[in-house]
């Protein structure tokens, strides 16, 4: 389903026509974190939104910030070349490299929770859309993320080409 089209039927699902969105019976959930919380609730286990420590909260904040920076870079890259801001793109790449160096020193790649899911998704889209090659900056994280991205559920929900 195409979501970046004013005529998309996805506006019938959510007024912003943005993904992710989950429909479970009469319930519609339109936020990744809330969807993960819903999965935890319906399965009666805490996998995605595990109790946070200051360390894991920081991991989540950095992972979502990394994803936000990837989105800014992709939006800028989608503009006509003459309208792109090289300064914005370079800054977001600089921030992304710093985040990857930081993640390489953390334990995020030893678990699979909301923070890790966010990082895997952000890395996959950044790499597949040409933002950078992170393997020389964070080899452990990249090896782990590549293995996680091979999960069936990941491939079934992966965005298509730009």
Features:
two-stranded antiparallel sheet, 6 helices, 54% helix, 4% strand, mainly alpha, 162 residues, 2 strands, Glutathione S-transferase Yfyf (Class Pi), Chain A, domain 2
Please characterize this protein's 3D structure:
This protein has helices at residues 32-43, 54-78, 86-104, 114-128, 139-149, 152-157, and strands spanning 22-24, 27-29. With 162 residues, it is mainly α. It has a domain at 54-157: Glutathione S-transferase Yfyf (Class Pi), Chain A, domain 2, CATH 1.20.1050.10. A two-stranded antiparallel sheet has the order 1-2. A hairpin with a 2-residue loop joins β1 and β2 (27-29). The longest helix is centred in the middle third of the chain and has 25 residues, at 54-78.
Low-confidence parts: none
What's the CATH topology name of the domain at 54-157? Answer: Glutathione S-transferase Yfyf (Class Pi), Chain A, domain 2
The biggest beta sheet is recorded as:
2 strands, antiparallel
Order of the strands making up the biggest sheet: 1-2
Give the strand content. Answer: under 5%
Helical content (DSSP H or I, runs of 4+): 40-55%
> What is the alpha-carbon Rg in Å?
17 Å
How many helices? The count is 6
List the helices and strands and how they pair.
Blueprint: E1 22-24, E2 27-29, H1 32-43, H2 54-78, H3 86-104, H4 114-128, H5 139-149, H6 152-157
Give a brief description.
The protein is mostly helical and 162 residues long.
